[in-house]
Structures
1.
Amino acid sequence: MAGQSRDAAIVGIHEFASRDVEGALSPLQIKAESAAYALTDAGLGWGDVDAVYDAGDGGGMSGLTISEYFGLKPNIIDTTNVGGSSYELHAAHAKQAIAAGKARVALLTYGSTAHSNARAIGVGGRGGGVHPADNMDSFVGMTLVANYAMAAHRHMHEYGTTSEQLAEISVATRMHAMRNPEAVKAMEDLEFLDIRETTITDVVNSRMIADPLHLLECCMISDGGGAVVIAAPEVAKDCRKKPVWILGCGEATKYPEIGGDITTSAAAQSAPVAFAEAGITPAELDIAMIYDSFSITVMTILEDVGFCAKGEGGAWVEGGRLRFDRPDDGPALNTDGGGLSSNHPGMRGIFLLIEATRQLRGESCAQVVDAKLAIAHGNGGMLGSRHCAGTVILGGD
Amino acid sequence: MVDVQRPLPKTHELDTKAFWAATKNEELTYQRCDDCEAVIFYPRRHCTKCLGNSLTWHTATGRGTIYTYSIVRQSYHPFFRDRVPYAVAWIDLDEGPRLLSEIVGVDDPASLEIGQRVKVAWESHEELSVPLFKPE
Ligand SMILES: [Zn+2]
């Protein structure tokens, strides 16, 4: 048949035998057991899996939590949920990923204790409703800032990174924010005390929230939203504005492990995949839209993306290198003002794509002259424990 | 006045309930795979290294080192907000597992150091104990 593509196949299967686990197994445990049998059926192991598909039925962040639970570090994480048809979509997406050379072995799992749960109603909790990782951590008085601060502290300990170096990130970002009327309005509406360009001294003298992170190293908490439209080339050529091409993408997870390195994020796995697909190197980038929940998030990701070696980020950012008006020194950072000084409603990833697109169209308030290549790197979850990374390399027309 | 309590783990969660049951006797436990000897932590029903599911519980000595820590100076949580400043830490147990906890028993948490030796300091509750740590 013309056009038939034989580029992906099902190689292992397992159907969980029991229809009543009597409350003794969790959906996650059913997924893990089924996965092990299906991999055995295929003659494969956990280490062969590089693409994970989950319908998100276990709650939020399921692409991350299922990867950690299985102990996998996939390059493709897909949590499409369209109810009972989710797995057909997962199969379709897996075929696409495999055909595109982005994955070799995809794992789809399903587990449910709907019957046990129904019986447990009214007699108190069975196993459901809480993730085992959360159940190990919830007694600790951890805050969001302290989670990131733990990564910052270890970075300082291992590499000699200083608060002044981390402050460079806040200072450059605020400088860009002051050129963006929407960012200035945001800071006014959120009643920032001192709306002006900042200095390194301002940042390190601001109040300590969780050692070693200061107030001015933390993002704002705003309302907000946005949208992005992506189209095929034949559509794009007739659109009103010049297209901004998606040149390469990468995905990854990172979670606590025995002997793990908290100073390295999932970007170290996702970025090389994206650069390889795009066929460019970090040194060629004009714009770095890096998720700035905190200063340390940016420092870590700049290293992991490959702008400099691990541990050298502190020295690398010194001297205002990240400003938009220093194009010869490397990419401009978060030229919209970032989450630190413009917009952070909780999940900032879409704004990274939006500002990168503005730059490549020549529409930014802190426009880098003749910007051609940008990276948008999102970090979802918590830098100091478990998070997902998404790297997108964008190129102007 | 309402007595605000530390948030406690759920004793019915299927992967971790054996861990929390052991804490009642102040035992800090972890799993090891019978087939490939991998240490598994947090607790699970399957080995994340091989395809086995035969894991055995072991009891740790409760001794370890601070991998990294932060001092919480601001918290809005009803239990923790009155305890600031206090130290939260990732602790590497001598047997391998890395677990999240708090460092207690220090006058000034800023005097703590990465790499410092610590040992478990149990905080007792009705159904279980939570493993906090103090300098050794
Ligand atoms: Zn094993």
2.
Amino acid sequence: METRTDRPTTRPAVPEHRPAPASPAGTDHSPNAPISIHDVTVAYDRKPVLWDVDLDVPEGRLVGLIGPNGAGKSTLLKAILGLVPVISGRVAIYGKPLSKQRKLLGYVPQRESVDWDFPVTVRDVVQMGLYGQVGWFRRLRREHVRRADEALERVGMTDLADRQISQLSGGQQQRVFLARALAQDAQIYLMDEPFAGVDSATEKSIVALLHDLRNAGRTVVCVHHDLQTVAAYFDYVILLNMRVVTHGATADVYTEENLRKTYGGQLTLLSSAATALAQRH
Amino acid sequence: MISWSVIDTWIIIVGVLSAVGCALPGAYLLLRRQSMMGDAISHSVLPGIAGAYLIMGNREPLTLFLGAIVIGIVTTVLIRLVKHGGKIEDGAAMGVVFTALFALGLVMIRRAADHVDLDPDCVLYGAIELTFLDTVPFLGMDVPRAALLTGGMLLANVLFLGLLYKELKLSSFDPGLSDALGYSSRFLHHLLMVAIAATMVASFEAVGSILVIAMLIVPPACAYLLCNRLLPMLLVSAGFAAASAVLGHLSAIALPPVLGYEDTSTAGMMALAAGVLFGGVFFLSPKSGVLAQSWRRVRLGAQLLSEEVLGVLYRRQEAPGVSARPVLAPEELRRGAQGRTVEWLAGRRLVRQGYVRPVPGGFELTEPGLHEARRLIRAHRLWETWLVEEMNLRPDHVHGPASRLESVTGEAMEEELARETGAPAMDPHARRIPPAEKH
Ligand SMILES: Nc1ncnc2c1ncn2[C@@H]1O[C@H](COP(=O)(O)OP(=O)(O)O)[C@@H](O)[C@H]1O
Ligand SMILES: [Mg+2]
């Protein structure tokens, strides 16, 4: 596990660059890709929300998953995690089915997905990230408790470890979720809007953390809303609106034209940035 | 004088065992916001029991538990199907399923009625008063069957919740992560529902469905108001459940003679006791109790009023031509019409902090009081300046917000404010901003 952490931070200078797949079936998948999504279609109550998504997420990248509200971004993350049934297609994690690779995945759900009045403390929540490592009926060992506390330290929440989670601000709640994922020490992190409702100082520190993860060779996929900061935060983007509009190195594919395709064409960069901002408040 | 007998002891034992046994899984229902599920299952257990009896031809505990397990799963699955198929919300789906199953159960009981005494009345109120009549030998004693049943059920619940403590905690708090980590939240949900159905079957005969439903919901609700962590919440739920059973029986013995009733339902009194305890917690809980909340309001009012007093005294002192220390008459405290408690508390607070001292005719500022007042006024006027300059508010609109902001302004914030406003000498109303104190 630890060997990856020590890898040099340099990556191949030329990113694998692929234009939007013309025919989804035509993509060749690498067996070493952290996440390989093969022709995945997902529907809720027969209403399709993801169509033929077919791509490899490259290793060691900080990937932005961008698209308008209701584009299926959360659904894509859930499909990767096996939390929603896929109608067709499959997902491979480092070439193997999800059921064998759960420990490699760390998940940061949308903050509204849980009840913040639940009677647990910050430390309790962070320890939950480690439950996957002990199995049914087993309790956490001392080593896990230590790892949870280290994760809290990394997000600067040590002082609040014994607080009930209902007494946290939005930014603090987000950091608890982040610490919980960090405690998992996963190879791949899937984060759903980790910047929603956090103040700018917290946002900066979270970005720094994500860069640390990437530099340690981890793959991070992050649903993101603020179009202004995409280029600064992510080195790879997936533009999604039910289908994958395009994906590739940020410098190559994050263009106004692709954004227009993603956001329906009628929206200008400015007005969609404005809606994105408005949604954050 | 109350006459106590071994019958009362057994009633209390059975009451406590079944109350605690219900409250523990009930806490999880409450946390999952599924307390209605307890209601649903309590109704649908009826066809489970009747069906098991009709098929197996006896009413041994094992038969009934099999019926409960089957019906627990059937109810849960049916509710999910109805919810998804009909695209309706949880509560409606439960309502559809449990009323249908309950009706089915009534029909089945009629058919079975020729053979057994499954009495619907008894299902509602139980027969805790009669438990001592039906005993079995256990460890060399004659123990009521109900005590063994409810005791076994409590033990099973403690084992179940203890073994799956972390799994249930995780899947109740964050089912998504639970699934992602390989602990199927749906499977755990079914297990919990089966445990609750079995708990009900064990308790029904003794205490009836009213008490079972009350104990599933009310003690956990008390504990929820008081606790910040899961394990304490479970223990406190158990404590409230036990207390309800004991208090309920004591009042069932003591009250009827006092009130002139003939008799009363022990199980009903236990449920009532739980309700009364909940009322007490609701008013008195330090976290969210009504009393605590109004006390916090009063304290906040007193803090604001005492800051206002310091401000008033300071402004009088800075007026041109004033040399003597101004005095605030006690009746001047009565400005905001906040009530006597707030005024009294504000006065006491100022004296205790040493900011004012009593003099003939009222209060005057002390030396520390003067410093504090100057600090508050400085913060107040800096805020007014900031609100006018940075937020473009009209000068006659900034007094209120500034008064609220001044009381939370610490040293660092004050320096920041002074920097951002350029540390002016005058505020927007052309009054002098006192300079920063040297620390
Ligand atoms: N549990 C669900 N049941 C039915 N429809 C859903 C469910 N979750 C999401 N949807 C629908 O699927 C679409 C995609 O949702 P989502 O993945 O949450 O989008 P995003 O995260 O990009 O905003 C939306 O139209 C949403 O209404
Ligand atoms: Mg979403």
3.
Amino acid sequence: MSFRARSRAALADAALQKALANVPPGFVAKRARAVAAWADFESVRKTAAAHKRAVLADLETHLARFTERAEAAGARVHRAANAGRARAVITGILRRAGARAVVKGKSMVSEEIDLTAALEEAGFAVTETDLGEYIIQLRHERPSHIIAPAVHLSREQIAADFLNAHDDLPPDRDMADNAALVEEARAVLRQRFCAADAGIIGANALIAETGTTMLVTNEGNGDLCANLPRLLIVIASIEKLVVDFAGAANLIRLLARSATGQEISVYTSFFTGVRRDDEAGGPEEMHIVLLDNGRRALLGTPFSDMLACIRCGACLNHCPVFQAVGGHAYGDVYPGPMGLALQPALKPAALEDGIIEGCTMCGRCAEVCPMLIPLPDLIRQHRFRAHEKGYGARAVRGGLRLWAWLAARPAAYRLATRLGGWLLRRFPMLARARGRKLPAPAGAPFMVRRRS
Amino acid sequence: MSSRLDTPRRVGLLVTCLMDAMRPAAAFATVRLLEAAGFTVDVPRAQTCCGQPGYNGADEQTARALARRVMEMFADHEAVIVPSGSCAGMLIHHYPKLCAPGTAEHAAAALAAKTSELCAFLHRHDVQPLEKRWRGGKVVWHDSCASLRESSTAEAARAVLGKIDGLDLMEAAEAESCCGFGGLFAVKLPELSLELADRKIAALMATGADIVCGPDPGCLLHLESRIRARDLPLRVMHVAELLAGEAPS
Ligand code: SF4
């Protein structure tokens, strides 16, 4: 199915449209208030964006430093070149530790490598513990948003899923408000946390200076995944590196405001190595899996800018196309402007199904991106490449060729615009097409009449 | 505001392809406004299109070739005026990106430096509207995305329109979101484009306006074609037409 077909289906989906209507008053308005209330937004944004680009310019050095420090603190660091390798590494760690029940925090990288499905296939019992992720796990769906995985669902749909899944609870229980749903999920998840052999979490930053991984959540589920089971696995992509805590602090300040309009997320946690002798909690065994999956190949290309992305979701929330169709229409893990820019960079096959057309070039994403990523420019680069490869509808390509030919020949061009206007005036039915009615121009083109 | 001294007397006009073919009245209005303010308006004969359809729609080669043409045709002008936010943005921000170092980057930078969107130019040179007293109905303003983000039009347009007595420009909700035109976007993803147009039209009409006015012929044509198909009581005017005292169409 093409992007066009999927977006058409999304527009026709009333439940989805109702859920998506919450995006502008929620995310957009809240971010606007948070940014307006923070005088340092522009300067921190510049500092953070420059910090990230400097790290990317010397990625191997920082990776080596991170690895050395993390291992000194008792963690083991694994490099995974691609998704298959990352899945194999993680499965191997869990098997060797004799783990069976796994609790998992929210991680887009784990979605990228399809981790949960692979682990379930290998016989592990995996529970997503972020509320949104838990809901879509029950529904066997993919997240539709990088920070709000279940944003495409209404409360009624979620209540129905809970009734279905939690069949040991009384079916006539009260599920009328959000609080009741959260309470129910919390009770179910608490049992899973306590019974888990291993926790898997993502990372919002990897701090090279100390070998620390940083995680922000609003639910605290990541901390329970990390601290209750004896085995902890952190999965992160290599570009999450920052030099030091100051670099991480700037990301925290930008991330929460850009994502949800909070000044800071409810939980911000730092994990450095395994439990030390004098500590009451924490994992006895910690592994950090660093995923490449096409990222290093982007260094030195225009798309390396995407390696500065902190997955705040602001570009999705402000995108007119995302607001209209939601995340699933993009057909892959990363939706919205950041998805359009990243997905085809990581896998060129993504150029073919037309997602890169899902952009009006309005520029609002770049305006809000805390990391100053020129998203429309990157999307346009993909379009150039797709055009060179000959993708796209034949009629549109033909039209572009004709336009190019005419635009280079003013005399022929005048004739064409003149004829076009005349046809529209003479045969009004030509003006009606696909839900539009073009106004006929009042008189011949300006450039024709200006001559006299 | 600049003094008379650094005011160019002869200006070049890039009329833009959509205005040329679909809205010639707005082009004549642009010329009248500028001439009334004492400028000599030169319209290079060789102009066709600034290259945006190719640039945003995939064909980099053609976009670059057209950029070269425009750069040459305005090489000798002191100032270039573009009555369209997105075409002005194309000359100011995107031509330089199309000209890699060692190609025509100096010509691109020179053109960018002397190009203005119409409202930005009128505001900078304190040009007075020809329309002195507005009696034409309630007007809501539609910023185009490019005029908000690329051509410094938004404030200038409001300031220039503010000089017309009795014109109470209304602002719509969600004014910063795109109307769904996007050039070839409207051709390649027509359903999405119409949906975004309908959302925009709903926001514009919620103000109770009779007329929507804006600086970008592309957005206006897109909205008008939808307004007409749905037979809605909202008329469309380019900002040049309003400033020059044209009747709404
Ligand atoms: S591209 Fe920018 S706005 Fe979008 S998710 Fe990444 S950091 Fe946030």
4.
Amino acid sequence: MSLPARIVTLLVAFAAVVAGAVFLVVNYIASSLPTVHYVASGGVVNVVLQEDPQNNDPSNPDWVSYYVQNPQTKQWVHTTLFSVPKHTRVNVTILGYDGCTPLRNNYWSQVQGTTGSTVTVQQFATVGKPIDSPTTTKMINSWSNCAVAHTFAIPSMHLFVPVPSPNTALFNKDACGVSPCTSGPHSQETFSFMSPDHAGYWRWQCFIPCGGGFLDGNGGPMQTIGYMTGEMEVSA
Amino acid sequence: MAESQAPTAAAGKAEPNHAVRIASIWLVLAIVADLLIYFVWQPHLPPGRMSDNARGQQFDITVMAVLCAPVLLGVWTYFGYALVNWRRRAGDTEDGPPIEGNGKVQAAWITVTSLIVLSLAAFGTYELIVPAGAGGGEGPVPIWKPSGVVTTAAWTPGSTHTLVVQAIGQQWNWTYRFPQFGGMETTGLELPINTPVEFHVTSLDVIHSFWAYQLGVKADANPGVDNVAFVKPLQLGQFVVRCNELCGIWHGAMFDYGNVVTASQFQSWATSIQTKERANGTLAALPPYATTYDPTEISQLGQAWAKLGIVGAGGYYYPGPQTGTPGDPVSP
Ligand SMILES: [Cu+2]
Ligand SMILES: [Cu+2]
């Protein structure tokens, strides 16, 4: 092969590799999940999440999943990425539509890192129909009554919150079967924490091995951003 | 080392003794390098001076560097000397002299390198055994233990009694249990200074690895295995705990910071957590302290399953809609 031919071959091969890498990166970025942005008003920001027994993504419809509520449209977004401003009081509301699974480490039954180290919990037969009054508690024992569906944890902030499952009898009768859930028995849990003082990304996850069908329950949704784990972006 | 065949000298000039010249240059460089390594670099070498293990590891790395630097400098000196003195001069078209081996150089090379490697093997073995495993995990029945320490059911400040700390890996956080404080569990790790600590490292799911970097402790966290490692913290301050075994999507985020504090600070930290966990029900909700946590052997967990109407997980913790045999990954 002549020298010019070799140079051309080399350049073409190099360009092909670069194009392949660029395609992969662009494809990855384009396919990444949407982020729901929460803006503070009056020094607080209200984050609303729900936990579903299934989801509306045709690729893994039977995976348990979190949803994040868009604060403007009130639409439920199938993502686990949200952003909050820095150094702001974050009020979180989690609607628990999924049934219980025992924790592997029951230590996570303890509420940690929230304001007052407590959560406030209330049970609903369906949206707008409470069946008890709100209770404030420091722990929800996932082993004694199988009362915990998932957890919400931001480990690097030492924030660990067990999220209760709905009333078992009601759940067994008419659990929400279409996601995102807008009716059906659910728990409602509220708690607060201060967002970090500097911008960045904080990983959050569930500690219940809730990946049904996966070895030890720790695969699938537990390992996939958009389902049982995500990131909280703290903006400046 | 570095003895060589001298190329034919330029006509009329006496050939200098190259071996002596190379050896002299090398000796000066090696002495300077070793002095710098020992006295200047050593205090900054990893993992620092925070514990007995860390100090031992820093010393070991220094010894390695002190031995390796002369070898490296020997090679570099020979190369440099050859490049400067034996390069082809303008107009020199003569062949170099044929080289047909040199018994003395070969014998010296083999002897010296064998001595270095064998003595390092002996040194390494000594440095692993004598400091009670040097901070590495020794499995459930450690054969190298710190001498003159005792483990008692309770731990009090100022004692030479071992503090027992269990490090539990799970996707993706470390928690710690303190059997001498009622089996309380924490997400943070505080350790008392000048106190022998006995780590029991295990996992609740996949394989993790407990790596307390500045303490010089690294032990694999295997589910169903109790991996024991010893350390004695010698300096106050912060250390980092990392997971050192690829364990899933958040492996890279599986790190946290611990602190070496005074014995009385540790005592009040530990008792305050114990008191809090007794009051809020966490202590009662935990399984009894054990060296491993096999989900199928935790009776409270079994009872929770039974309440769900699930009997026997068939080797799986999560008894979902799965097929296949235990031990094989399955898809839903
Ligand atoms: Cu979960
Ligand atoms: Cu890990």
